[in-house]
Each structure stands twice: as C-alpha cells, then as structure tokens.
Amino acid sequence: MDAHTKAKHLAYLGNATIGSRVNIGAGTITCNHNGVQKHETVVQNNAYIGSNNTLIAPLTIGQNAFTAAGSTITEDVPQNCLSIGRARQINKENYVQKLLEKLKASSKSPSPCAIKVKKSTKSSENEL
Question: What is the pLDDT of residue 73?
C-alpha cells in the first residue's frame, strides 16, 4: 500500500496492489483465488472503496473511482466512475406467518434461512 492509504476495520487485501490516498471501507475483501490460481486486484490512486465490498479478481479500480457500500465488484471500474454492484432487496410483507406454516406442515423443519428460494423474475408474496 502506498502513502496515505487507509485500510482497517477487518479488511482483507490479498494479492492486491493499492495506490496512494486510497480509502478501503470496513469489511472489504479481495477474492483473489479461484481454486486453481491467484489473481491480482489493483486499486489506483485516490480511489474510494465503500464499506463491505467484495472485490473479485482479476480486477482494476481506476483512479478517483468510487464503489458503493455493500457492492460485489466483478468488472474493472474506469477512472472517475461510481460502481454499484448490489442485488435488489425484496420485502415480502406479512410473509413470515405463511413461511412458518409451510415449514410446520413439512416433515422437515429447517430454519427459514436454510430454505432454497425458487429463481423467478416475479416478486409476488406467494412465491418461495
């Protein structure tokens, strides 16, 4: 890491080249190994990496570029660019009771977090 760069708060920056005057947000990690080989992440001067970012190498974040908090960055970010890589949040109102009833009716009772959600483009509250 070059001069005046900050990276604290449980950040992991493996196989990365970080320029000067860069801010790495809390909880940011570089994912540099694909199971076979390591790849490099490059963050150029004056970049600002938001909190809780996942930077998937190989990847270059350009000079003066910003990444939004909570983003998964999978492509190069050009200089002076803001990159946002988040999944859209969906809130299913009044759905918890339906979910619990479904779980109780099944022979297995996994935790709600263990349920596999069907892939769909709809966001109907009746889907799961």
Answer: 97
Q: Give the pLDDT confidence of 43-72 residue by residue, as tens digits.
A: 999 999 999 999 999 999 999 999 999 999
Coil, helix or strand at residue 98: helix
CB of 24 within 8 A of CB of 5? yes
Cis peptide before 78 (omega within 30 of 0): no
Between CA 77 and CA 3 the distance in angstroms is 22
CATH architecture of 1-87: 3 Solenoid (2.160)
Q: Are 65 and 81 in contact (CB under 8 A)?
A: yes
Q: Tokens 């759905």 — which residue?
A: 95
Tell me if 41 sits within 8 A of 15, measured CB to CB: yes
Please report, to the nearest 10 degrees, the dihedral formed by the alpha carbons of residues 112, 85, 42, 14 taken in order. Answer: -10
- Closest-CA residue to 115 (of 125, 127, 124, 123): 127
Distance of CA 107 to the CA centre of its chain: 35
Residues carrying an active site annotation: 9
